[in-house]
Amino acid sequence: MTIFPDAFTELAVLLLFAAAVGALGVRLRQPLIVAFIAVGILVGPSVLGWVSANDQIDLLAKFGIALLLFVVGLKLDLHIIRSMGPVALATGLGQVIFTSVIGYLIGSAFGMTPVTALYVAVALTFSSTIIIVKLLSDKREVDTLHGRIALGFLIVQDLVVVLVMIGLNALGASGDVSWTQAAFTVLAKGVGFILLVGLAMRYLLPRLLHMLSRSQELLVLFGIAWGLALAALGVMLGFSKEVGAFVAGVSLASTPYRDALGARLTSVRDFLLLFFFLDLGANLDLGLLGAQLVESLLFSVFVLIGNPLIVMIIMGVLGYRSRTGFLAGLTVAQISEFSLILGALGLSLGHISSETMGLITLVGLITISASTYMIIYSHPLYERLAPWLRVFERRQPHRETGQDSVPHDAVPLVLLFGLGRYGNGIARALRDRGWRVLGVDFNPDLLRAGDAMGQRVMFGDAEDPEFIATLPLAQTHWVVSTARERHANLSLIQSLRGLGYHGRIAIAAQSVDDAARFEQAGADLVLMPFADAAFEAVDRIMGPEFIREEKS
Questions:
Q1: Which parts of 331-487 are beta strand (E)?
Q2: What phi and psi, each to the nearest 5 degrees, are found at residue 141?
Q3: How far apart are CA 228 and CA 326, in angstroms?
Q4: Which string of b and e fits 359-396 if b means at least 16 CB within 10 Å?
């Protein structure tokens, strides 16, 4: 019997309660995932018993999972894997295989059935891309060598988890059909699905996105609709909504709109994922969690220590320093939201019990909380452990020679907002002088024109702080804005300074009052297009020819 008069009031109270507990979690420097699962446990039947609108929460949770996989696919950067070479694949696949095998043996030693042990072992292999990227971004370490390596093998893990979900759905749907026949059917459907999406990428999506991008609200709406539509198609084909949503994201990952779209969807994704963790926590039985305490502690220690060790060993063999291996290895010292989604999938398919799901969740709570502190204090931790970590390093760590910086041709030294006449003129002049320029605009026609001239372009809005955070600010010497809107330029300056950008900022002003405001806000250089053009015209008029005539 619910204490709330209707589902709307119940959801409103749950959101308010989640915001309060989330604020407490942030104050205690805990990941919001931990806080939200705790909220689910508190409002569930084991404690307060507030949750009764299970259908509504479950539907919103499914939307959140689909958007999570969509954004992961949208941000799939194969260049990271290529640029990191063997280390991303070796550490990614090596850690997955090692954790799966050892985790399976530990599960079997606890008397688990082979299927249960396999689920637990696989769940232990995946690390949280969301948490790691957030922590590395907060520490300004995304563009460091260990940060790029970590992103590389996290992408490998994301690909593996999608393949695992496809396999599990095929296994669950096989029924009386032989496993070989079921696998062949899944392969045929998968090829057809990929072919269909490939045709859309080639002939439909570029033109459609160009048309829709004239309205950023419409572009975001299409992104959500496209992700959920392919998620539903994935379910119809016998895969899962996660696989369909992931493919939908990948289909848009090569477009110039992916970063702006991903930035706009991040808040929506995080909001909807709240319901997944609420639903997960509300369905947990605290008695079952307590019964799994010993097993969960052992599995947690294995994840916190074993996963970083295998990454350090592999990176040491490949020729990286122990420091790089240690800092990268700490990023796999937890299980991820994918592990919980995998467990929920296994529970829905009847492969594992609620006790096993409780075990996976408790391991997630322990490892996510502990690894957060390990990553935050990674450098002091390494200094204490450095004497014992030299064993993981070759005498000559040749792999690190010249890799502490981003490849020269991949570094955009100038970020240029606004690709109109003035902006394009600046871009051409900078390129002529050997500078690399990355242009940003939200006008699709200007983007297409810039791309046709060989200018690197990206769709985005200077007023969107989440989009600004996705830009390569650590590699940028100058940020130049030729936008006409005063509020857009002020928002850009504020976002750049808030993100810790240490380069220089040049802003084009339309009036003297705007110029004064930009300087006060923190601009290093204010450009006055019309005044500058007038002075240049006078300099040219009053050039050498005029001087010679005056002397004569």
A1: 414-417, 437-441, 456-459, 478-481
A2: -120, 10
A3: 39
A4: bbbbbbbbbbbbbbebbeebeebeeeeeeebeebbeee
Res 301: pLDDT? 92
Give the model's confidence band at 292: pLDDT under 50 very low, under 70 low, under 90 confident, else very high: confident
Tell me the CA distances in angstroms from 255 to 130, 147, 200, 534, one per residue in order: 22, 24, 13, 39
Over the stretch 31-72, which tens digit does the pLDDT of each residue have?
677 777 778 778 877 777 777 667 788 888 888 888 877 887
Q: Could you tell me which residues come within 8 angstroms of residue 75 by beta carbon, excluding any fewer than 6 positions away?
A: 249, 253, 258, 262
In the block, residue with structure tokens 């005063």? 486
Cβ proximity of 310 and 133 under 8 Å: no
Check: CB of residue 374 under 8 Å from CB of residue 333.
yes
How much is the pLDDT for 481? 92
| Residues ≥6 apart with Cβ < 8 Å to 322 | 312, 316, 386, 389, 390, 391, 392, 393
Distance CA 65, CA 275 (A): 10
Burial class of residue 82 (count of CB atoms within 10 Å of its CB; 0-12, 13-18, 19+) = exposed
Sign of torsion, CA 392 395 399 404? positive
Question: Phi, psi (5° rounding) for residue 72?
Answer: -60, -45
Which residue in 262, 254, 281, 205 sits closest to 40, CA to CA? 281
State the SS3 of 266-309.
Answer: HHHHHHHHHHHHHHHHHCCCHHHHHHCHHHHHHHHHHHHHHHHH
CA-based end-to-end distance of the chain? 102
Residues 201 and 206: their CA atoms lie apart, in Å, by 7
- Residues paired with residue 508 on neighbouring β-strands, in sequence order: 527
Residue whose C-alpha is closest to residue 439's, from 471, 466, 463:
471
- Numbers of helices and strands, H then E, in the chain: 27, 6
Name, in order, each residue with C-beta under 8 angstroms of 243's C-beta and a sequence gap of 6 or more.
69, 162, 165, 166, 169, 234
In this predicted model, which residue has the larger pLDDT, 463 or 166?
463
Q: At what angle do helices 486-498 and 512-521 cross, to 10 degrees?
A: 10
User: What distances in angstroms separate CA 353 from CA 17, 115, 117, one per listed residue?
Assistant: 29, 11, 12
Could you tell me which residues come within 8 angstroms of residue 478 by beta carbon, excluding any fewer than 6 positions away?
413, 414, 415, 503, 504, 505, 506
Mean pLDDT of all residues in the chain? Answer: 79
pTM: 0.68
